Amino acid sequence: MTNGITLLDALTQALGADAILHSEADLAGYTEDWRGRYKSPALCVALPGDTQQVSEIVRLCHAHGTPVLPQGGNTSLCGGAVPADAGRPPVIVNLSRMRRIRRVDAANNSMEVEAGCVLASVQEAAAAEGRLYPISLGAEGSCQIGGTIATNAGGTGVLRYGNTRDNVLGLEVVLPDGTVWNGLTALRKNNTGYDLKHLFIGAEGTMGIVTAAVLKLHPLPTAHAVAWLAPESPQAALDILGLFQRACGSRLSAFEMIDSNQLDVVMTHVPGRKNPLAGAHPWHVLVELSDTGGDAELQDLLQEILEQASGLGLLHDAAVASNGAQRAALWEVRHSVSEGNKKAGVGLTTDTAVPVSAVPRFIDEATQAVRGLVPGLPVLIVAHLGDGNVHFIPFFTFDAWNALRDRDATAAAIRRAVNDVAAALGGTFSAEHGVGRSSLAEMEHYKSPVELAMMRAVKQAFDPAHLFNPGRLLP
Amino acid sequence: MTNGITLLDALTQALGADAILHSEADLAGYTEDWRGRYKSPALCVALPGDTQQVSEIVRLCHAHGTPVLPQGGNTSLCGGAVPADAGRPPVIVNLSRMRRIRRVDAANNSMEVEAGCVLASVQEAAAAEGRLYPISLGAEGSCQIGGTIATNAGGTGVLRYGNTRDNVLGLEVVLPDGTVWNGLTALRKNNTGYDLKHLFIGAEGTMGIVTAAVLKLHPLPTAHAVAWLAPESPQAALDILGLFQRACGSRLSAFEMIDSNQLDVVMTHVPGRKNPLAGAHPWHVLVELSDTGGDAELQDLLQEILEQASGLGLLHDAAVASNGAQRAALWEVRHSVSEGNKKAGVGLTTDTAVPVSAVPRFIDEATQAVRGLVPGLPVLIVAHLGDGNVHFIPFFTFDAWNALRDRDATAAAIRRAVNDVAAALGGTFSAEHGVGRSSLAEMEHYKSPVELAMMRAVKQAFDPAHLFNPGRLLP
């Protein structure tokens, strides 16, 4: 099969020298994750220009028994997009050159795009046709559609529009043996056998390389209303969420909760951020409605529900944005969380989700569990409350962190304690970030043997040589 | 393994005599489909009362090498719920006795139910908590949740809420070797490996037996508005659909199109049905908006869009229902289609879907293709236009049908011609009915070899002995 020629030479012959990077300098941006936590060697980086080239690369790697690492914008939060630290160095197949918007079908509310399209450019192409592609997240200026599909990316639009999985109609995938599967259907209904696309969405590149996708589009909202609320408690926040859902249905597009510790960190460490409310309150919610039609109606609806909530004693205070600039200012407070936390100290970020109804109990019990390990340790809460997704962040000042004897062991014990509480409430240790490299131990610990065996059976059926993204996702 | 004891005896020992039916009289309602088109023998019918019993049945069948046929309400339109006509007679595992609503979690907008729950009872349990379970279809009074999951049932709520697949959060499944997979998560976000539930949704019982599910609930709409429209043409209907989507977003809950032939059949053959509009028009659309809030606002919005459509010359005429009784009367016309067609003659029903934008071209080209085979043959059109799902029905009077020389061959040739047009436009031969027994030849003909190989790999990984629902879904 390999005729004595090296894989590097074969790839260079097949794609041309400019599409294969292999000097150490050229590899640097591809073999290390953006936060600088993981770095491992690769054989080379291949930059295919089309699906056929991806297929050729995969066939050559298969023939040489060399691992393959699909890579998009390299924005993973869990080391999912850089090489593993064991085994043969892989060929990184970076999709950046495949960035054509192949087609926008406005009447069908769909668009076909190549995997290397940056998320923001997909949003723009949809908006140009009066449509919304609703996946939106911090990395949208650099992450690629293929990566968002491989990780089933979440973000701030999930409450109303679902995860990436819910916004993909069809896929084109190069399978682990190099075969191209053309599953680029744009249909809303198709009951002809197993829905194969779901095998690849969220598979973190372990089942093949997504090369293109048909995405679902939505009407572009034209009206927005945003308010900042101070609910009595997490339970009161949930009750208010219920009022909004009953009265607004799918107009409710965000319901984000933070606690006063988190707000204080933002106020103290991010210049220009102001407390949206006068006075101190223990809990804070940013609520957003969006709709077709005009702002005024939506604003009235928002006011009405807030009055209801006040009347029920659920609310300490609230501030409603009265124009676009005020709406943006409220969102800015919420979006400053990461920046503030980075400056303030060391946060042991978790990515738990529990049933929405269980969030108050989760916060109570996880706080107790953490305090049992480190008495008095502050916790920051950042929750996509409408999705039950709580970033529960035990937080150390730099001094406290540096004074710890065994930081790794302390961090691991704290995270395990938090994830244990989530698991006991029917929750998960990874709501939106994925497993990647950093949560393999959690997969082993929390997943049932039945479920792991099912996943391994799927993997074995499609990648029996275990060449795709080894050391990731499946322990 | 089997110790010489017959499977029937072993099942009777395990479940008790009252849970195993095997006399011919007892089997009658289980071995024949409700339309009387398919009937084949079964070894027996097992009526498990809980998941553990399902597991025992499957283990025993596995040990005896006997096929297993999961069965719900037996309402399949394509022979999917009765035994195949070849191979060993299966044990039918009928889930009717497993009909507990295990839990409704209103704050999480979810409910956990057993597979044998009748769809209507699930809708009622959700409504009792002020929530909507949005899957709604003709058979809802007798079909079971397990069957709707196995077939990814569609129906009239798809435009707004998606198919069954989109409304399932978690599953409990007895796998082909009898292992129970507890995947009953109620989470909105969970990125921890392959999303295994999608392997079973729409798998038509070939991958195991769904025994319970966690379903997604929605706010219960409180406002409704319905109108009957006469658009210029299918393209005009699409343009009007676009106006509604832009102006109403997800308030648009139905957009159903029929042609004048279909309306005439209903008028002529179903007593009490009246043409909603004065005068004759070639095309008809029923549009429904629904929302939280009150009827009046929604009615105004509907009127506004109709005026817009009129101004653009897209609309011949329109009638807006002004109260609940009038809304029901308009829906009654639409729901009388099956009854009318059954009385009027022989319709060769198809279940095609194409991208929404391609519907006008599909109707034109499919009509030409059919007329090329049978000059002048009338066609009835019943389309879930918002989903691109067209039931394109070449129609014979009873006399014309009886005068045909080879009815089977004519029907097959006509269906193939219609499905060919759909396929050429990126469409499918089964949008919502599934494959079952009746569309195996279409699977073989239209699916790519790559896709069939992928499906067979999945099947092989989970059911290597090929005992689950053999002769169905996969050719």
Automatic annotation (TrEMBL), chains A, B:
Any Pfam family matching the protein: FAD-oxidase_C
FAD-binding PCMH-type domain sequence ranges: 38-220
Keywords: FAD, Flavoprotein, Oxidoreductase
One record GO biological process: respiratory electron transport chain
Enzyme Commission number(s) from the entry: 1.-.-.-
EC top class, as a word: oxidoreductase
PROSITE patterns the UniProt entry points to: FAD_PCMH
Molecular function GO labels: FAD binding; oxidoreductase activity
Domain of life, per lineage: Bacteria
Name of protein: Putative FAD-linked oxidoreductase
Lineage: Bacteria, Pseudomonadati, Pseudomonadota, Betaproteobacteria, Burkholderiales
